[in-house]
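Let us work through a complete example step by step.
Step 1: write down the sequence.
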Amino acid sequence: MFYIHWCEIYIATTGGLATAVGYPLDTIKVRIQTQHMYSGVWHCIQSTYQREKVYGFYKGMALPVLSVSVCGSVCFGTYRNCIHFLCQLQHGNSDVKPSKFDVFIAGCCAGTAEAMVFAPIDLIKIRQQNQTHSHQSYQGPLSRGFLSKPKYRGPIHCLITVIKEEGILGLYRGVTALWLRDIPCFGLYFLVYTIFTEWLTSQGQHKPDWSAILLAGGCAGMTYWTLATPMDVMKSRMQMDGMGQQRYSGVLNCISESFRQEGMRVFFKGLSLNCVRAFPVNGLTFVIYETVLAFLKKINLKD
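Step 2: predict the structure and record it as tokens.
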């Protein structure tokens, strides 16, 4: 199954472009989730540009773009390997069609593995995104929460600083919330994609066309973020806890304190931004993945 691993690396590498394109929305989403100074999305965009210019939307982007191939390969690779293992275990043949339950379990395994690799990368990204120091050209007053100088000079400096101040485990701050987000949501992510591709495949066709894959992938992405956003907010807040005074003792405390202070709306901060990014990014991801997978399978059969 060598061709599958190369397919996953290829599709994950193409995700670097999607990450770069959607990164400004991600920065705005993170700031809305973790900071209380913004009244809404547009206010956050205006404030970010006014004080930090265009650079403010791309803080911390280098590491996610460079590492997306690793995270994507782990996610898709774990999913495919689990599917093959479950089919082989139950039917003695890895080429049989997996059940919906098998798809969900394989997706949960993919979310578990991906979170372990993604957690330190995400923490470093979020710490840098929340460094709201002003651009040199900005001469206005600094609002509460804005810094005159950044604490972290880059991803490597951020990594070293976190380890020095919080230890190795500091890189995994918020990983419990990340698992609670990714394990069930990745299971549903792959399940929704599988269900939609089956619905959208015409009778007599062995596989869906690219438009069906695009729609199924987009719907899977939106489903993921609709369900994942509440825990995504908690994860982001816990990851930011190490930058200053620690506010939360754990996931449950973060949930209860956030709800007590901001009500039910706190669990849906950034939902619209997540869904706007989710449909095109995930639709394109699955189109490229399925296309390259089919191509490499043909090569493998010829060999």
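Step 3: interpret the result. The chain has a mean pLDDT of 86.
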